């Protein structure tokens, strides 16, 4: 039986990746926007708390199981910034281009460009689920000033993986999903749901 699942996100890039990643595991996935669920508040200082907030919000408004993703890029020379604030690093309205430009400017004076993407996924069976299923993933790279590639979303044109000689935005979807913080987290989550 396929289980209907709400993706508690409004981010088109994430939704595309989840559809690719979940297509094989027996879930029929629906973005919260299909149910007119508005964006949830993300008031917390940790990824996991924000993801739980988003998952419960979507489950409450739809009456269905929900999966939320809270993720971001953490730059070592900046003490882990922008981190949970990655989506609104350059303020409102949220803009990938403005966020990337601010991050590259903030890093200009730092020699250490190392960074990692981090993703927490939270799955709740219903809004008040006392046992949320939680998984995480991490993907190491470095920030480069000159954008490369047109795939992915967010900071991907500036997120360089030295071992591949490419930015995340230069990878195919399959290549990115095989390596990414989100792909790792989702595979771990699916194992826990088995
Ligand atoms: O694979 C990725 N490739 C590039 N950038 C990425 C990735 N994964 C997260 N990111 C960045 C985008 C955004 O600046 C922030 C997520 O913020 P986050 O609040 O989790 O998502 P969001 O507000 O865009 O959508 P929503 O909360 O509705 O899921 O990290
Ligand atoms: Mg968000």
Write the layout of secondary structure elements.
Blueprint: E1 3-7, H1 12-22, E2 27-31, H2 47-62, E3 66-75, H3 96-107, E4 114-124, E5 133-143, E6 159-161, E7 166-167, H4 173-179, H5 181-193
Parallel strand pairs: 1-2, 1-3
Antiparallel strand pairs: 3-4, 4-5, 5-6, 6-7
Helix pairs in contact: 4-5
The structure holds 2'-deoxyinosine 5'-triphosphate and magnesium ion.
Magnesium ion binds at residues 42, 87.
Explain this structure to me?
With 194 residues, this protein is α/β, with parallel strands linked by helices. The protein has one domain (3-193): Alpha-Beta Complex (Maf protein). Helices cover 30% and strands 24% of the residues. The chain is built from 5 helices and 7 strands. It has helices at residues 12-22, 47-62, 96-107, 173-179, 181-193, and strands spanning 3-7, 27-31, 66-75, 114-124, 133-143, 159-161, 166-167. The chain has a 7-stranded mixed beta sheet. Strand 1 (3-7), helix 1 and strand 2 (27-31) form a beta-alpha-beta unit. The longest helix is centred in the N-terminal third of the chain and has 16 residues, at 47-62. Bound molecules: 2'-deoxyinosine 5'-triphosphate (Y43) and magnesium ion (MG). The site of 2'-deoxyinosine 5'-triphosphate (Y43) has 24 residues, from strand 3. Belongs to the HAM1 NTPase family. InterPro entries: dITP/XTP_pyrophosphatase, ITPase-like_fam, RdgB/HAM1. Its cofactor is Mg(2+).
Descriptors:
Maf protein, seven-stranded mixed beta sheet, binds magnesium ion, binds 2'-deoxyinosine 5'-triphosphate, 24% strand, alpha/beta, 194 residues
């Amino acid at each position: 039986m396929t289980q209907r699942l709400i993706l508690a996100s409004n981010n088109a890039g994430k939704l595309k990746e989840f559809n690719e990643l979940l297509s094989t595991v027996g879930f029929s996935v629906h973005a919260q926007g299909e149910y007119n669920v508005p964006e949830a508040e993300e008031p917390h200082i940790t990824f996991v708390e924000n993801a739980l907030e988003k998952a419960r919000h979507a489950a409450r408004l739809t009456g269905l199981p929900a999966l939320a993703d809270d993720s971001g890029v953490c730059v070592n020379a900046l003490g882990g910034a922008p981190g949970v604030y990655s989506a609104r690093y350059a303020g409102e309205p949220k803009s990938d281009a403005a966020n990337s430009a601010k991050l590259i400017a903030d890093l200009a004076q730092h020699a250490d460009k190392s960074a990692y993407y981090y993703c927490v996924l939270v799955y709740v069976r219903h809004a008040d689920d006392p046992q949320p299923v939680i998984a995480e993933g991490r993907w190491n790279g470095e920030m480069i000033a000159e954008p490369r590639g047109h795939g992915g979303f967010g900071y991907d044109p500036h997120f360089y993986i030295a071992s591949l000689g490419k930015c995340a935005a230069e990878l195919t979807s399959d290549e990115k999903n095989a390596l990414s913080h989100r792909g790792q987290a989702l595979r771990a989550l699916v194992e826990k749901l088995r």
